[in-house]
């Protein structure tokens, strides 16, 4: 991996000088310097300007913009500009346009109007990458290369004939022969057996449910096709440029169908875009989940926040503005959880186009605004935190996350539409957040040995090797928690016979003979006082200790919560959907059992996260409440707090950072 770090925390935004008269550019540089901006992403949606006709490149405007940025001391994250093809490509090659499952063609006029399997698109895009790379490979302003932009955001699935042929090729490579494919897809069901590769298509609109393994494989294929574009551009850049390469993932923004765990090896730095959901009553909790997951994808290494917003976005039904101080809290919470760079979309709010109402560092009202004053304050904050760069986040807890399990869990014709993959993930993570505990969100194949507690929520699809790894973790002294609808199928979406939860049955010491999903709005109660809904099951404890059973509903007296001692550790099973209070109590019991504690005691609504390097540590305190708080913290105050009677006082809505002295010994040491 090539080094992507600067001397401090990167700070900046997407910069689109081509949208503005050149006389604006000098003002932009002056304002960037005033704000403390040191990195901007340039050229992301510039293909139509850089290549106005096939093979004719126009770089003079980009030359001037990059030179101006360099003269101003601002680094450039230079895009390959392949994020959205120019209109001339579809006009000359309509076969490059993507199609939906029902055959609808998606035309130019928005962005990403291309089939990801199209060799024509691939050829033209790589020609552009080569032209841009050869021109700017040695430019002193360029510190990072930005492949495409949000790959697969709008065109992750294409069902055209070109994609169908690519899908067949992907299946040949995966299965080798038709007998293996037919076995994996279970084609003995519904007379679906294939006798020729040409008979196979993507899961296009059908009279009823499509073959579930066909659907699952098409989702895998589609993620791999987007990854193939990333890899093709990355491989070309590696031959031509010395700088590190990235692309912006979309972890935690509702993007379901891209397997970022498999993409991480193809970038020098994991970068992520994150936006708040206006309807979310506690957006800071979901922000933490996205950051923890991004860090997990990065293998615990620092990562780059490539995009978020200074205030409102433009693409939700109701685009709520951020309240005073919220942008700063959001940004520094990302840094607390491992980001070594804070960038936004975009530098200057657009006058025209679909995103003209999206907030920016420089709003339509100009620099004499709340937003720009906060932008300048954040720039000063990040300069003060330069020493934190390169450090890692402390976490004794891991939550297992697998995109394929997500895809499989939410396929059609399942026991209940109310069982969704991210529901228990979010609930357990939120309970940890409320308890002051930071968790890594990692793939089931990750090394679990450093953790004390591992949670496996709704891990519907699991491979044998990953199930075995979780068992080894428990046998070695760890504590694991598995929730309902986990371990049900193998990687082919075939049921693991013998009783649920299949792959985890022996580890958990339970056997479920039948699911009893609940009706909409129906609730049940447990004999420990808990309330639950959505899901119950006919469970037998076969070696596990019963911790709680149902008192009503369809299964009174049947176990709902169990604990099984295995080796030096224990495996807990949660067979129903506990409400938030019961989830909090469960997490409290688990933390007590494992000895996992927050970095310092803090009141509700105050987020405390520790980052650590080889010889020192930093405590980030984010006060999301409307009142000042005091915490017992020892060290050098770097940001935002005041000392009172040996305590750190953090004002309402503010963020403080302290370099701890001495650095505490890691709990896992």
Automatic annotation (TrEMBL):
Residue ranges of domain Beta-galactosidase C-terminal in the record: 605-660
GO cellular component: a single term: beta-galactosidase complex
Domain of life: Bacteria
Active site: 150, 307
Keywords linked to the UniProt accession: Glycosidase, Hydrolase, Metal-binding, Zinc
Amino acids binding substrate: 111, 149, 315
Gene3D superfamilies reported for this sequence: 3.40.50.880, Glycosidases, Golgi alpha-mannosidase II
One Pfam family cited in the UniProt record for this chain: Glyco_hydro_42
Catalysed conversion reaction: Hydrolysis of terminal non-reducing beta-D-galactose residues in beta-D-galactosides
Any GO BP annotation: galactose metabolic process
GO molecular function, one term: beta-galactosidase activity
Entry binding sites for Zn(2+): 115, 158, 160
Enzyme Commission numbers on file: 3.2.1.23
Domain Glycoside hydrolase family 42 N-terminal: 14-384
Domain Beta-galactosidase trimerisation: 395-596
Protein family membership: Belongs to the glycosyl hydrolase 42 family.
Protein name: Beta-galactosidase
Organism for this UniProt entry: Micromonospora marina
């Amino acid at each position: 991996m090539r080094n992507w770090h600067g001397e401090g925390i990167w700070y900046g935004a997407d910069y689109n000088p081509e949208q503005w008269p050149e006389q604006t550019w000098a003002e932009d540089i002056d304002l960037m310097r005033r704000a403390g901006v040191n990195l901007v992403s340039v050229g992301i949606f510039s293909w139509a300007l850089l290549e106005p006709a096939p093979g004719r490149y126009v770089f003079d405007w980009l030359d001037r913009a990059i030179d101006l940025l360099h003269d101003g001391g601002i680094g450039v994250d230079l895009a390959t500009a392949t994020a959205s093809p120019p209109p001339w490509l579809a006009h000359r090659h309509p076969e490059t346009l993507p199609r939906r499952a029902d055959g609808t063609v998606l035309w130019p006029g928005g962005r990403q109007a291309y089939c990801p399997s199209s060799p024509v698109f691939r050829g033209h895009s790589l020609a552009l990458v080569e032209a841009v790379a050869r021109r700017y490979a040695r430019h002193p302003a360029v510190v990072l290369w930005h492949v495409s932009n949000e790959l697969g955001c709008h065109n992750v699935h294409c069902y055209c004939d070109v994609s169908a042929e690519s899908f067949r090729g992907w299946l040949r490579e995966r299965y080798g022969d038709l007998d293996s494919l037919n076995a994996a897809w279970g084609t003995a069901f519904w007379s679906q057996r294939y006798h020729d590769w040409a008979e196979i298509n993507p899961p296009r609109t059908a009279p009823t449910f499509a073959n579930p393994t066909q659907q699952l494989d098409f989702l895998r294929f589609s993620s791999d096709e987007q990854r193939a574009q990333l890899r093709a551009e990355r491989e070309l850049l590696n031959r031509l440029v010395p700088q590190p390469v990235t692309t912006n993932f979309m972890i935690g923004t509702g993007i379901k169908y891209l397997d970022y765990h498999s993409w991480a090896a193809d970038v020098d730095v994991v970068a992520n875009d994150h936006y708040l959901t206006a309807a979310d009553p506690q957006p800071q909790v979901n922000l933490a989940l996205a950051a923890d997951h991004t860090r997990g994808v990065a293998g615990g290494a620092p990562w780059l926040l490539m995009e978020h917003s200074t205030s409102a976005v433009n693409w939700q039904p109701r685009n709520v503005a951020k309240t005073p101080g919220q942008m700063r809290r959001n940004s520094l919470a990302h840094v607390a959880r491992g980001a070594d760079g804070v960038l936004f979309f975009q530098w200057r709010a657009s006058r025209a186009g679909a995103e003209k109402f999206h907030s920016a560092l420089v709003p339509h009202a100009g620099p004499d605004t709340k937003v720009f004053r906060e932008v300048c304050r954040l720039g000063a904050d990040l300069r003060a935190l330069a020493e934190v760069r390169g450090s890692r986040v402390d976490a004794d807890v891991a939550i297992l996350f697998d995109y394929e399990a997500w895809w499989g869990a939410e396929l059609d014709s399942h026991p209940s539409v109310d069982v969704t993959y991210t529901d228990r993930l979010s609930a357990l993570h939120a309970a940890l957040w409320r308890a002051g505990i930071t968790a890594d969100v990692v793939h089931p194949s990750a090394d679990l040995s450093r953790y004390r507690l591992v949670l496996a929520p709704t891990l519907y699809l699991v491979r044998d090797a990953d199930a075995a790894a979780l068992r080894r973790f428990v046998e070695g002294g760890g504590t694991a928690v598995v929730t309902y609808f986990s371990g049900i199928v193998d990687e082919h979406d075939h049921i693991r016979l013998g009783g649920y939860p299949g792959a985890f049955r022996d580890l958990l010491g339970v056997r479920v003979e039948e699911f009893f999903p609940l009706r909409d709005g129906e609730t049940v109660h447990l004999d420990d006082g808990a309330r639950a809904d959505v899901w119950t099951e006919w469970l037998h404890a076969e070696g596990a200790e019963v911790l709680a059973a149902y008192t009503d509903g369809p299964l009174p007296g049947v176990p709902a919560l169990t604990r099984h001692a295995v080796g030096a550790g224990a495996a807990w099973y949660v067979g129903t959907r506990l409400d938030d209070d019961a989830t909090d109590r469960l997490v409290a019991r688990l933390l007590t059992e494992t000895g996992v504690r927050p970095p310092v005691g803090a009141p509700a609504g105050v987020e405390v996260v520790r980052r650590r390097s080889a010889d020192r540590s930093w405590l980030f305190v984010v006060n999301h409440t409307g009142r000042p708080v005091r915490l017992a913290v020892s060290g050098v105050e770097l940001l935002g707090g005041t000392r009172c009677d040996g305590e750190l006082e953090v004002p309402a809505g503010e963020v403080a950072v302290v370099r701890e002295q001495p650095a505490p010994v890691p709990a896992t040491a």
